[in-house]
Amino acid sequence: MIVDFASVDPNMRRNAIAHRLAPTIALPGTSDNVVLDCTGTERMGLRGPGTMDWLAAEGRAAPDVVNKAITLPDGISVLRLGQQEVLLTAPPGASGERLRNLRRAWRESAVPAKGYDAYRDEGWAWFVVSGPAAPALMRRISMADLRPESLGHGQVAQTRALHLDVVIARLDRFSAISYDIFFDIASAAFALDALTETAAGLEANFQLAALHRAA
Fold it and tell me: Does the predicted model carry a pTM greater than 0.90?
């Protein structure tokens, strides 16, 4: 039996911490301090020879250097993690249809070199920390310099945070300073514990929730 992975409902993906967070489809405002579990939102990782050429052939722009990120007009963000490695994410809370179509196009492409599926949708958890107090929270979970003046909009840090290897992208979602954090999904429960305790210590009224996609 042939399975069309491009049509798999992202809500069916295993998320060991989903039951611990209140679900929401409401996007935060500029002044809201939030930690959002976006693991259920569509994403796609490609790596290996041909990745960048295939992306360009699909008419998708990408950062011209490693450790940069851009957001395309259709809302898909492209994080360049290596010379031939990218992570593409749908907007948090969006349906992810455009990205699923892109995944389908990649699977159906007959070009000899188009990169390999890095399985970031299955292997990585995804949190977004956003709001006026987001930089203060990031300072407490990582020894890397993630201040807004050091990690500017559109920059990516492949570093350590939450005692884990992480990828952090500054994309300033929801018209606020924000950080996308990606890490091994097997460590999601540990990371949530650390984020919950750290956010509480800031007394900044951080709200923690699982952001589900709108119908």
Answer: yes
Closest CA to 124 of 167, 90, 93: 167
The answer to whether the beta carbons of residues 48 and 117 sit under 8 Å apart is no
pLDDT digits (tens, 9 = 90+) for 94-122: 999 999 999 999 999 999 999 999 999 99
Which helix (DSSP H) or strand (DSSP E) does residue 102 occupy? helix 97-108
Q: What are the φ and ψ backbone dihedral angles of 160, each rounded to 5 degrees?
A: -115, 135
Long-range contact set of residues 13-16: C-beta below 8 Å, sequence gap at least 24: 13/39, 13/40, 13/121, 13/122, 14/185, 15/39, 15/40, 15/125, 15/185, 15/188, 15/210, 16/185, 16/188, 16/189
β-pairing verdict for 207-211 and 34-37: parallel
Q: Which residue has the higher pLDDT, 40 or 4?
A: 40
Quick one: which of 149, 142, 147 has its CA closest to 191? 142
Residue at 75: amino acid letter: G
pLDDT single digits (tens) 59-101: 999 999 999 999 999 999 999 999 999 999 999 999 999 999 9
Q: What is the spatial distance between Cα 81 and Cα 15, in angstroms, rounded to a whole number?
A: 24
Give the separation between CA 189 and CA 118, rounded to whole angstroms. 22
Q: Which residue has the tokens 């998708």?
A: 60
- Which helix or strand (DSSP H or E) is residue 86 part of? strand 85-89
Beta bridge partners of 88: 44, 78
Sign of CA dihedral 144, 150, 154, 155: negative
